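Project standup — Tuesday

K.O.: blocked on the structure for the chain from last sprint. Re-posting the sequence here as requested.
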Amino acid sequence: MPSKEFYLNLKRPGTETIYYNSNGMLIFDDFFTIYASQISFALLFTASITLIGSALAFKITRRKNRLKTFAAKNELGYRYTAEYYIRHLAGMPLAKNNPANRMRNFLSGGMLENAVYFDFFCRVPVTLEWFSQSVVCFHAEYDLPDFYLMPKEAPFRVPAAAGRVRMSRDFDAKYSLYSTNPIRARALFLRGPENFFCNERGWSVEFRHNKTLVYRSGVLYSAFLLADFINKAFEVYLMTVWVPSSPNPAQTPSPADSARASA
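H.V.: unblocked you, prediction finished:
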Protein backbone atom coordinates (compact mmCIF):
# COMPACT_ATOMS: atom_id res chain seq x y z
CA MET A 1 0.00 0.00 0.00
CA PRO A 2 1.27 3.48 -0.74
CA SER A 3 2.31 5.52 2.25
CA LYS A 4 0.59 8.65 1.04
CA GLU A 5 -3.09 9.27 0.48
CA PHE A 6 -4.16 9.08 -3.09
CA TYR A 7 -7.36 10.45 -4.48
CA LEU A 8 -10.04 8.75 -6.42
CA ASN A 9 -11.44 11.02 -9.06
CA LEU A 10 -15.07 9.95 -9.37
CA LYS A 11 -17.29 11.27 -12.14
CA ARG A 12 -21.10 11.21 -11.78
CA PRO A 13 -23.35 11.96 -14.71
CA GLY A 14 -24.48 15.58 -14.71
CA THR A 15 -22.40 16.63 -11.66
CA GLU A 16 -19.09 18.24 -10.89
CA THR A 17 -16.02 16.13 -10.12
CA ILE A 18 -16.07 15.04 -6.45
CA TYR A 19 -12.90 13.99 -4.64
CA TYR A 20 -12.51 11.14 -2.10
CA ASN A 21 -9.44 9.96 -0.21
CA SER A 22 -8.22 6.35 0.09
CA ASN A 23 -10.64 5.62 2.95
CA GLY A 24 -13.64 6.77 0.92
CA MET A 25 -13.99 10.02 2.92
CA LEU A 26 -15.22 13.11 1.04
CA ILE A 27 -12.64 15.89 0.84
CA PHE A 28 -14.72 18.77 2.24
CA ASP A 29 -12.18 21.46 1.36
CA ASP A 30 -12.56 20.63 -2.29
CA PHE A 31 -16.34 20.24 -1.97
CA PHE A 32 -16.86 23.70 -0.46
CA THR A 33 -14.46 25.23 -2.94
CA ILE A 34 -16.56 23.89 -5.81
CA TYR A 35 -19.98 24.68 -4.32
CA ALA A 36 -19.19 27.78 -2.20
CA SER A 37 -21.23 30.22 -4.31
CA GLN A 38 -24.30 27.93 -4.44
CA ILE A 39 -24.19 27.29 -0.69
CA SER A 40 -23.77 31.00 0.12
CA PHE A 41 -26.74 31.93 -2.08
CA ALA A 42 -28.94 29.24 -0.54
CA LEU A 43 -28.08 30.35 3.01
CA LEU A 44 -28.62 34.02 2.16
CA PHE A 45 -31.95 33.30 0.46
CA THR A 46 -33.19 31.21 3.40
CA ALA A 47 -32.12 33.87 5.91
CA SER A 48 -33.88 36.60 3.89
CA ILE A 49 -37.14 34.66 3.67
CA THR A 50 -37.02 33.91 7.41
CA LEU A 51 -36.34 37.57 8.24
CA ILE A 52 -39.17 38.84 6.01
CA GLY A 53 -41.59 36.26 7.42
CA SER A 54 -40.67 37.16 11.00
CA ALA A 55 -41.07 40.89 10.33
CA LEU A 56 -44.47 40.36 8.69
CA ALA A 57 -45.68 38.11 11.53
CA PHE A 58 -44.55 40.70 14.08
CA LYS A 59 -46.35 43.50 12.21
CA ILE A 60 -49.60 41.50 11.96
CA THR A 61 -49.48 40.52 15.65
CA ARG A 62 -48.76 44.08 16.77
CA ARG A 63 -51.69 45.43 14.72
CA LYS A 64 -53.94 42.71 16.09
CA ASN A 65 -53.01 43.40 19.73
CA ARG A 66 -53.44 47.17 19.37
CA LEU A 67 -56.92 46.79 17.88
CA LYS A 68 -57.85 44.33 20.63
CA THR A 69 -56.86 46.97 23.18
CA PHE A 70 -58.85 49.62 21.29
CA ALA A 71 -61.89 47.32 21.23
CA ALA A 72 -61.66 46.64 24.97
CA LYS A 73 -61.42 50.34 25.82
CA ASN A 74 -64.42 51.23 23.65
CA GLU A 75 -66.55 48.18 24.51
CA LEU A 76 -66.42 46.80 20.97
CA GLY A 77 -66.45 43.21 19.83
CA TYR A 78 -63.28 41.97 18.11
CA ARG A 79 -62.72 39.12 15.66
CA TYR A 80 -59.58 38.53 13.63
CA THR A 81 -61.58 37.09 10.74
CA ALA A 82 -65.26 36.60 9.87
CA GLU A 83 -65.87 34.35 6.86
CA TYR A 84 -69.64 34.85 6.76
CA TYR A 85 -69.21 38.62 6.71
CA ILE A 86 -66.58 38.45 3.98
CA ARG A 87 -69.01 36.51 1.78
CA HIS A 88 -71.62 39.18 2.53
CA LEU A 89 -69.37 41.81 0.91
CA ALA A 90 -68.46 39.78 -2.17
CA GLY A 91 -70.44 41.99 -4.58
CA MET A 92 -68.78 45.27 -3.59
CA PRO A 93 -66.05 46.67 -5.91
CA LEU A 94 -63.61 46.88 -3.00
CA ALA A 95 -63.85 43.14 -2.31
CA LYS A 96 -63.85 41.88 -5.90
CA ASN A 97 -60.90 39.87 -7.20
CA ASN A 98 -59.26 39.64 -3.78
CA PRO A 99 -58.92 36.56 -1.54
CA ALA A 100 -60.96 36.45 1.65
CA ASN A 101 -57.89 36.59 3.89
CA ARG A 102 -57.31 40.20 2.81
CA MET A 103 -60.05 41.31 5.29
CA ARG A 104 -59.24 41.03 8.97
CA ASN A 105 -59.45 42.71 12.40
CA PHE A 106 -63.24 43.14 12.55
CA LEU A 107 -64.78 45.48 15.14
CA SER A 108 -68.51 45.73 15.90
CA GLY A 109 -71.02 46.94 18.47
CA GLY A 110 -70.72 49.91 20.84
CA MET A 111 -69.95 53.18 19.08
CA LEU A 112 -70.25 51.45 15.69
CA GLU A 113 -73.97 50.71 16.25
CA ASN A 114 -75.20 49.25 12.92
CA ALA A 115 -71.74 49.30 11.32
CA VAL A 116 -68.69 47.05 11.19
CA TYR A 117 -65.07 48.12 10.96
CA PHE A 118 -62.31 46.04 9.33
CA ASP A 119 -58.82 46.30 7.83
CA PHE A 120 -58.59 45.57 4.13
CA PHE A 121 -55.46 44.63 2.18
CA CYS A 122 -55.55 44.24 -1.58
CA ARG A 123 -53.32 43.98 -4.63
CA VAL A 124 -54.02 45.85 -7.86
CA PRO A 125 -54.33 43.25 -10.67
CA VAL A 126 -52.39 45.27 -13.26
CA THR A 127 -49.55 46.91 -11.30
CA LEU A 128 -49.49 44.33 -8.43
CA GLU A 129 -49.17 47.27 -6.04
CA TRP A 130 -50.39 46.68 -2.47
CA PHE A 131 -53.05 48.85 -0.85
CA SER A 132 -54.19 48.78 2.77
CA GLN A 133 -57.05 50.74 4.24
CA SER A 134 -59.42 51.13 7.16
CA VAL A 135 -63.04 50.46 6.16
CA VAL A 136 -66.40 51.01 7.86
CA CYS A 137 -69.43 49.15 6.50
CA PHE A 138 -72.93 50.44 7.36
CA HIS A 139 -76.07 48.30 7.07
CA ALA A 140 -79.52 49.71 6.32
CA GLU A 141 -82.14 49.64 3.56
CA TYR A 142 -82.51 52.89 1.62
CA ASP A 143 -84.43 53.89 -1.48
CA LEU A 144 -81.38 55.07 -3.39
CA PRO A 145 -79.69 53.96 -6.61
CA ASP A 146 -76.45 52.02 -6.28
CA PHE A 147 -73.50 54.42 -6.56
CA TYR A 148 -69.75 54.22 -6.29
CA LEU A 149 -67.61 57.23 -5.46
CA MET A 150 -63.82 56.95 -5.52
CA PRO A 151 -60.74 59.08 -6.20
CA LYS A 152 -59.74 59.22 -9.85
CA GLU A 153 -56.55 57.29 -9.12
CA ALA A 154 -58.35 54.48 -7.21
CA PRO A 155 -57.66 51.03 -8.70
CA PHE A 156 -61.03 49.39 -8.00
CA ARG A 157 -63.41 48.42 -10.80
CA VAL A 158 -67.10 49.28 -10.66
CA PRO A 159 -69.89 47.00 -11.96
CA ALA A 160 -70.53 47.17 -15.69
CA ALA A 161 -74.16 48.26 -15.08
CA ALA A 162 -73.00 51.50 -13.42
CA GLY A 163 -72.65 54.55 -15.68
CA ARG A 164 -70.42 57.56 -15.18
CA VAL A 165 -72.04 60.54 -13.43
CA ARG A 166 -70.76 63.94 -14.54
CA MET A 167 -70.56 66.62 -11.87
CA SER A 168 -68.73 69.98 -11.71
CA ARG A 169 -65.26 70.36 -13.22
CA ASP A 170 -63.68 70.67 -9.76
CA PHE A 171 -65.41 67.51 -8.53
CA ASP A 172 -64.57 65.48 -11.64
CA ALA A 173 -60.91 66.50 -11.36
CA LYS A 174 -60.68 64.75 -7.97
CA TYR A 175 -63.31 61.98 -8.06
CA SER A 176 -65.09 59.50 -10.29
CA LEU A 177 -68.77 58.84 -9.55
CA TYR A 178 -70.69 55.90 -11.04
CA SER A 179 -74.28 54.82 -10.54
CA THR A 180 -76.96 52.47 -11.84
CA ASN A 181 -79.14 55.58 -12.10
CA PRO A 182 -76.85 58.51 -13.05
CA ILE A 183 -79.66 61.11 -13.03
CA ARG A 184 -80.76 60.30 -9.46
CA ALA A 185 -77.16 60.01 -8.26
CA ARG A 186 -76.32 63.42 -9.70
CA ALA A 187 -79.32 64.98 -7.96
CA LEU A 188 -78.30 63.28 -4.70
CA PHE A 189 -74.79 64.71 -4.77
CA LEU A 190 -75.91 68.18 -5.80
CA ARG A 191 -77.81 68.41 -2.48
CA GLY A 192 -74.58 68.85 -0.52
CA PRO A 193 -72.03 66.07 -0.85
CA GLU A 194 -70.47 67.61 -3.97
CA ASN A 195 -69.09 70.63 -2.09
CA PHE A 196 -67.76 68.43 0.71
CA PHE A 197 -65.84 66.14 -1.62
CA CYS A 198 -64.46 69.07 -3.62
CA ASN A 199 -62.68 70.13 -0.40
CA GLU A 200 -61.86 66.63 0.90
CA ARG A 201 -59.54 64.30 -0.98
CA GLY A 202 -59.21 60.53 -0.90
CA TRP A 203 -62.67 59.39 0.24
CA SER A 204 -64.45 56.40 -1.26
CA VAL A 205 -68.13 55.53 -0.76
CA GLU A 206 -69.73 52.38 -2.17
CA PHE A 207 -73.50 52.01 -1.83
CA ARG A 208 -75.14 48.80 -3.03
CA HIS A 209 -78.52 47.44 -1.87
CA ASN A 210 -78.30 47.52 1.93
CA LYS A 211 -74.54 48.04 2.34
CA THR A 212 -72.43 51.20 2.39
CA LEU A 213 -68.63 51.08 2.53
CA VAL A 214 -66.76 54.21 3.60
CA TYR A 215 -62.96 54.39 3.49
CA ARG A 216 -60.00 56.47 2.37
CA SER A 217 -58.12 54.75 -0.43
CA GLY A 218 -54.73 53.50 0.69
CA VAL A 219 -55.02 54.79 4.29
CA LEU A 220 -54.80 52.35 7.20
CA TYR A 221 -55.36 54.23 10.46
CA SER A 222 -53.44 53.40 13.59
CA ALA A 223 -55.37 52.44 16.72
CA PHE A 224 -54.65 55.92 18.13
CA LEU A 225 -56.47 57.62 15.22
CA LEU A 226 -59.16 55.01 14.65
CA ALA A 227 -61.89 56.71 16.72
CA ASP A 228 -61.48 59.93 14.72
CA PHE A 229 -61.70 58.00 11.45
CA ILE A 230 -64.85 56.17 12.55
CA ASN A 231 -66.52 59.46 13.52
CA LYS A 232 -65.55 60.99 10.18
CA ALA A 233 -66.84 57.91 8.33
CA PHE A 234 -70.19 58.37 10.13
CA GLU A 235 -70.25 61.98 8.93
CA VAL A 236 -69.62 60.95 5.32
CA TYR A 237 -72.25 58.21 5.54
CA LEU A 238 -74.90 60.54 6.99
CA MET A 239 -74.27 63.13 4.29
CA THR A 240 -74.24 60.79 1.28
CA VAL A 241 -76.73 58.07 2.23
CA TRP A 242 -78.79 58.67 5.36
CA VAL A 243 -79.83 62.34 4.94
CA PRO A 244 -80.75 62.09 1.20
CA SER A 245 -82.88 59.02 1.91
CA SER A 246 -84.75 60.49 4.90
CA PRO A 247 -88.06 62.26 4.14
CA ASN A 248 -87.57 64.57 7.14
CA PRO A 249 -83.96 64.38 8.41
CA ALA A 250 -84.51 67.01 11.11
CA GLN A 251 -87.04 64.78 12.93
CA THR A 252 -85.39 61.41 12.37
CA PRO A 253 -82.61 60.37 14.78
CA SER A 254 -79.39 59.61 12.96
CA PRO A 255 -77.39 56.40 13.52
CA ALA A 256 -74.75 58.49 15.29
CA ASP A 257 -77.37 59.91 17.69
CA SER A 258 -78.67 56.40 18.36
CA ALA A 259 -75.15 55.20 19.11
CA ARG A 260 -74.57 58.03 21.59
CA ALA A 261 -77.94 57.39 23.26
CA SER A 262 -77.14 53.71 23.78
CA ALA A 263 -73.60 54.35 25.06
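K.O.: great, moving the ticket to review. The first helix runs from residue 28 to 73. The chain is about 40% helix and 20% strand.
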